[in-house]
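Pasting two entries for a bug report.
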Amino acid sequence: PLGGPLNVSTANTPISSMRSAQRTPTDLRVVIDLKKAVTPKSFTLAPNQQYGNRLVVDLFDNAADANPTPVIPDTAANTAP
């Protein structure tokens, strides 16, 4: 049966834990607990020879975290009078 904690490595990720529960015979709920805010993107993949239908969820660092404001050096302080 499906349900319970998902034993996957979350080291060096924004994920603190993951768990799932089978709500009905055809419905599965997956919960991802996060350490920080992320931007999620999801899409489905059709079956292939190895896997059935799949849902892919990518978790990206927020733009503010991923693109810090660059520091511009004060050129006036670096020039001799």
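Entry 2 (this is the one that rendered wrong in the viewer):
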Amino acid sequence: MLSFTRIAPRVIPRRPPINFTPLQIRHPFRLVILTLKWVAFAHLFWEYGYCMAPASGPSMLPTFEVLGEWLIVDKTHRLGRRLSVGDMVSYNIPTNTEQGVKRVIGLPGDYVLMGTPGVGPGNMIQVPEGHCWLVGDNIPASRDSRQLGPIPLALVRGKVVASYRPSDHAFRWFSNPLKDGIE
């Protein structure tokens, strides 16, 4: 007589269903908290880290083009922190609500030429405490400290560290030409 043995069926453990949404998105309260965290992080980054601003005007030719370049500004240098002569800074123009970009020529205590080099008398001025002397690279087309006087360090928004040109997707990183010559 033949006997048949019964084969037990193989038990496959059940897996939870595949869910492609992260846990934070499945629960509305967690989604709100996650969104608030990202908004807070973005605010801190743009307010105290880096920002981008368009370059416009001929005052910084040939360093920047008149239109079409975007500048990356390091805001850890705002209010004049850790600036050196030769750095490019973004600042609030004191006579209106616009922003400008110029090169630092003098810091508190430095002596600078008040007028345009080679034109008129060569009067010198000492930059007062809490101020800096800013001049554009294109001297004939620049409205800067030669007309406005010393700029308060409180108006400095940050140091320009790079530029981006969307037309050819090119980044250019800037360094202080005066520091490069010393090292």
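Dev reply: Rendering is fixed now. As a check, the viewer should reflect this: The two ends are 99 Å apart (CA to CA).
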